[in-house]
Amino acid sequence: MDFALTCPDEARFAAHCMLGFQLPTVIVPGAYPPEVVGGFHQLCLTVHGQIWQCQVRVVWFAAESVAPPFRPAVGLGVVQPPVDFVALWQAASQLISPEMGPALLQSGIGGQHDRFPLPS
Fold this sequence. Notes:
Strand order of the largest sheet: 1-4-5-6-3-2
Low-confidence stretches: 98-104, 106-120
Distance between the termini: 20 Å
Mean pLDDT: 80
Largest sheet: 6 strands, mixed
Shape: globular
Radius of gyration: 13 Å
Number of strands: 6
């Protein structure tokens, strides 16, 4: 499956960065079928006009049936990321605040909630 994520600036990209995995991981919102878990996929990532084509694997999955306040999404670990992408991801991950990453997955109500990563 091919995924796409477009962010107009680095601050918006920071909201899609997910920490806690061995691979640089980005959250891509959307309702995806469970079959996306496993194997490798392609991600077209655009940040402020710069485009990366990356091979990814799903490291985190929230199905369409996930209960509020969560929203469906996948966390994609970038396999063999380009050096310039790693620099961008590391800089963006420094911008992450408690309101940014979880806000992407939650409807805005409630506080911190657990996330359920897939086994590596």
